Each structure stands twice: as C-alpha cells, then as structure tokens.
Amino acid sequence: MQSTHKSFCRNCTHSCGVVVTVENGRATTVKPDHDHPVTEGYFCIKARASLELHEGGDGRVTECLKRSGHDDWTRLDTSQALDEIGDRLKAIVEKHGPRSVAVYMGTGGFYNSLAHPLAKALLHEIGSPNFFSSASVDQSARWVSMMRMGFLASGKPNPADVDALMLVGANPLISHWLPAFNPAKRLREWSRKGTRTIVVDPRYTETAKLADLHLPLRPGEDVTLFAGLVRIVLENGWQDRDFCDRYAGRLEQLRTAVEPYTLDYVHRRTQVTPDKLVEAARIFACSGKSLLITGTGIAMAPRSNLAMHMADTLNALCGGWRRPGDWVSNPGVLLSRTFSDTVIAPSRPWESGIQCHSAPTGLVQGEMPTGALPDEILTPGENRIRALVVLGGNPLKALGQPEKTMRAFRELDLLVSLDPRMSDTSRLSHYVVPPPLPYERHDLNYVLDGIGWSTKPFLQYAEPITAPPPHVVDESRFFWHVAGRMGLQLEYRKIGLLGLYRDAAPGFPLDMTSPPHPEDLARWWVRDTPVDFDELRASPGGLLVDVPGQAVAASPDDGVRMDLCPDDIACELAQVHAEQPDTKGSYRLATRRIRETLNSMYRSTQAAERNFPVNPAFMNPDDMKDEGLQPGDRIVIASRHGSLQGTVREDRDLGRGTISMAQCFGESDLERDPDQRTGSFTGRLVSLEEDVEAINHMPVQTGIVVTISKSGLS
Ligand code: SF4
C-alpha cells in the first residue's frame, strides 16, 4: 500500500517543505513540495540523507542501551533505563549539588521544537546553569559581538532588500544556509535587480562564482581584512554619517585603532590585492542599503570574537540595520515581536553573571561555553560537572582535541546520549536512548518563525508519517520521566531558537502522572496566536497566516549607542597588528563543508560514502608541484597541537598556501582507525587549552597554521 504525505525537513533552519512517499509503512522517497509557499519546491541532498537514516542508515539504534565495560552493551527495557537514569541523576544532585548536572544540545536538538524546551526546564528545576550547545562552538562569536557592541531592536534587513551584500566565510551553495531557499536562484535574482554581491573566502567557491567580487582571503586573516576595510571606509568618508550619528559611538577611537591597517599591510597579510580591497569597501559602503552576513568560517577562525566585532563594525558604519519606516512583512506567528530603532546597550553578561568554575568567564546568551565543557568536568571543585545529558548532538566531534574530551567524558559519573546513532559520544555513554526520527515525530517549524530572511508569516505542523520502532523514546517523554523520577515538577514554556527559559512567558505545569502528548505541546505553542490548531493540523502543507506587517517604529533618542570600539577591542587590534608572520613553508588549514553531510551527521549515507570515502586534503596544484605531490598521495598534516593523515586532492579554486579539509569527519578515537582510512578528523589539530578565545572559550577550528610532510603510508 502506498501513500504520500506533506511534511518538512528537520535538518536546518529552512524547514523545506517535502512530500514523502510511504510504502507498506516505510518511507521510501522524499521529494520537494512544489506548492510550499515559502520554500517553493526547493530542498537539498541532506533531505534524502535523512530518509536513509530512517531506513537504518548511519547505524540506527532502536532500543535503550546500557554500557558495561569498554564496549559491552546490554539492551534495556525503556522504563527501566529511564528509571535508572533518573535515580542516578537524583543521587548525583543530592551528593554534589545542582551544578553537577549539565545538558548539551546539538543540531538535532535545536530542530526538535516540542521537546527541547523540556531540556531547559529540567535544568531550571534542578537549579543548574550548565546548558551547553553546538551553537556556542560555531556561533558564539556572533553573540559576543552583539553583547559587546550592542544592537538595534529593529534587526538586520532581509538580504532581498539590500543593494550590496557581503558574504563572509559562508558557502551557501554547499551549506544551503543564507541566502535561504535556493541560494543560487536568489543570488541570480538579486543580481538581476542590481544587488552587488561580494564573497570573502579562501576558496573561489561555488558561491563566489556567482558574485560580483571575490576576496580570496588567506585563512585566519579576517581581523586584518575587516580592520583594513573599516580604515578604507573611514579614510574616504564613505560611512553612513546619519546612521553613525544616531546609533553608533566611539568612531574616533575606532579610527585610531585601525590606522596601522594600511593597504600594503593588509595586502601582505590577507593576500587580497589593494585594488580589490578598495573596490569591496566602495561597493559595500556606496551602493545604498548594505548587509554583511557571516558564516561559521569566521566564527571558528583565530580571534573570532574580534573578527566578528570588526565585521559588525563595518556593517554598522555602512548602516546595515533596519531604519524607522522600514517594512517588516513577517513579524512572526508563534512569538510576538515589535520592531523599533531602540539601541540595545552593550551588556557583557559574562563579566557579571554566573561564572564557569574552571575559567574566568560565564554565560553568553544564557549558555555556558562548550569549549570549556571538558575542563568543567575535569577540574576539581564543588561545581565540577559529573553528569551530562546529550540531546541530539555529538560534542566529542564538535569540539576537537578528542583525547581531552574523551578523558573528560570517561570521568563522568553519568553520560546519557539521546541519539539515533552510535556516535563517537554515544559510544562513551553509560546509556544510549534512541529517539524517534523526524518523520516519526510531531513538530512545528518554529525555527523559521519570524526569522529575518523569511518574508511570509507561515506555520506548518508535522504529524508522524511512519510509526517509530516500538522501543524508541520521544525526547519529551524522556525529560518528563527523568524529572518525575527525581521528584521534580516541570513547566512547559514556549522557547524559540536560542531562547532562554527565564525569559520565556510562563507556560503550563506538566501533569507528572502521565507523559505529555506531543500534540498537546504543539497546541500550547499555537495557543494565543491567530492560528486555529485544528485547521493547522488539517493542512499538512502548512498555512500562510494573516499577521499584519509592521513598520519599524522610531524611538526617542535616549543617548545609547552601539560601541564600535571599546577598549578591549582597541587593545586586541594592536596585538593582532604586532603578530609575527607564519614560519616559512607552513600552510593554513581551512575547514570546509561538504554537501552530503551535516556536521557529523550522514557521514555513513550512500552519497557521502560514494563521494567522500576519505576526507581529501585539497591543495592548490602549484603547491602540490612544489611539494612533489600527486593526487592520492598520503601526507601528514601537523599543527602545534597534533597531526593527522590526509589524502591529497587537487583544487584549482583554492589559493596557494592553504590546505582545505572537511570538518567533523573521520574517527575521533584512533584505536578504531589507526591509519585514518575512514577519513581524517581535523579536530586533532585543535587545542582546547591554547589559542582559545577569552570570552566564549571558542577553540580555533580553521585558519590553523600547519606543516605538511609525506606519509610513510601509501
Ligand atoms: S536546506 Fe536542505 S537540510 Fe536545510 S531544511 Fe532544506 S532540505 Fe533540509
């Protein structure tokens, strides 16, 4: 028997509309939904990969597992597993206090709209601030910059509405990030209407080939580039003076701080020619409305907090924020928002809030820095973490320096992974609890709600299309069961993407005598919105919602300004300028994304195995010639912190002096792949102790200085 069902992809923010065919209870094909009013028939290869996982790809786990010994797993009845986990958590809290428990949420958790608020609710009831996530590994420089500089409550403009767009460290044609919903089509459309696009990337990427200008930046030189561009804008008086007068402060301190970043100096460090630097600054500052979008490349590179601050400074100088009167056509359906030009003052919560116990820093955007997680486990003291629950993530792969993270995880009294796969982290866990997969669960497309690049108020509710295996455990039931066993009462709140429990409006207390039904949780989300839940449920392809647009309101000038150049930024700019050049003959590693995988997910799918049986070390052909290397040669790539084996592949689009490899690839445990034949894990080149960012403990994962040598292995 065959049937088709509308739903949406749960892999990333875009929530692309899909049509899934089910035959005899199995999801057999997934196609884009051409009637979907937002994504309009677009989707990417990862939507197909997700279906493979449903059919057992990537080694699906279908029953609760308990580890005894090194790699000895016992199947456990679900209730018994959850009882044991709840009892052990309770005992740990009673003995060591609330801060002994932590939750890490990975990419899989973020897109689970109904369950993830309960992870935050559980920590709240325990009284622990220890919420960590994958966002603090590749996004937190963004938050640091916002909280150090301040920002406008109006938000940034939709990229479709600007005249000049700069994309930095992002390759959306591969990652499918911004511009959303068919990036190639959007970039071509915007180009036809006159938008000028600049791409900053060490590679002449697929996206760069569609741009008006490509700046082939040497990996890790983002700070120098942006300081140089800021200097050019100020020197030529190209800044938006009205915007800066009203919303930005400390321009003179900024002017002084970037003064040493002359054209010659910036060219020498970044390898971008002076004419391209001036052209980029002119296009971005002088074309009309502008917007700078940063990807994970800049957030994972050296001095990422400073680089993000300087990128945001360039954006602010050129007025890259919505102004009074600008129209916001999608203010959101689920969470009401208002838009004004109020300047939200710098807040620096890491200086005054709850502190890490292993490092002089604290909460950023309500999260503890994931880069500090291993030390929060290993460092003795009363606030040491002893129990970790991992929701939809693989922190061992996300963090780098795997020996240290493995050592930390082995020190835990309790490690629980809610994961459908035996990931690197699952293998170290005491318990693995298998959740349903996306097409087996209820969900709302909450991540798309009111987000800047989606112009239509739209809501979609997904019901299960296929039945999950009998022993999988819905994540909402997991948190409910464990909390009940600990004697805690949970409250369910509407918490948006990156939202905080304490800031969310009061919710409703869960009935702790019977598990919450996901449909009831979805009803709660939709309550007090213009949407009738039953109508939404009867419309599996989603509903366009009649939410009035808003013009950005003008607020009275209260004197608050975005701080473009606080003292610590000026000081760090001087430090960067004084840095010594790399050792002769060294390279810089630039990590890249591949179309077939999503961080560490989908590595074992057919498409990934076929196209990337190894993790190639891409090199410029001229560098290969100089090194006497042929495609397929094995090389050792070494940083100050570690080394890995790579297989050379030619890439004519890569600048010289760069090695480019995919991240989150290969085995973190060398015992499982001593010759690194299943791929090379670039996290081996990373240190969680040196070269980490001061505020958010972000480890450097790209732009790392490396040397290469021929490997003895063929
Ligand atoms: S862009 Fe790709 S991964 Fe993201 S939601 Fe769409 S289909 Fe899924």
TrEMBL record:
A Pfam family reported for this protein in Swiss-Prot or TrEMBL: Molybdop_Fe4S4
Do you know which InterPro entries this protein is assigned to?
Answer: Asp_de-COase-like_dom_sf, MoPterin_dinucl-bd_dom, Mopterin_OxRdtase, Mopterin_OxRdtase_4Fe-4S_dom, Prok_Mopterin_Oxidored
Domain 4Fe-4S Mo/W bis-MGD-type: where? 2-58
Q: Which top-rank group of organisms is this from?
A: Bacteria
> Coiled-coil segments, which residues?
none
Keywords for this protein:
Iron, Iron-sulfur, Metal-binding
Does the record carry Transcription regulation as a key word? Answer: no
UniProt keyword Lipid biosynthesis, yes or no:
no
The terms under GO molecular function for this entry are: iron-sulfur cluster binding; metal ion binding; molybdopterin cofactor binding; oxidoreductase activity
What PANTHER family is this protein classified in?
OXIDOREDUCTASE YYAE-RELATED, TRIMETHYLAMINE-N-OXIDE REDUCTASE
UniProt lists the family membership as follows: Belongs to the prokaryotic molybdopterin-containing oxidoreductase family.
Name this protein carries in UniProt: Anaerobic selenocysteine-containing dehydrogenase
